[in-house]
Amino acid sequence: MPESSLALRSRLKLQYQLQLNDPHRHGLVEDPALLRWTYARANVYPHFRPTIKTSLLGIVWGVGPVVFWTYVFAKRRAQKEKEIKEGKRELLAHLRF
Question: Which residues cross the membrane (predicted)?
Answer without folding.
Answer: 55-74
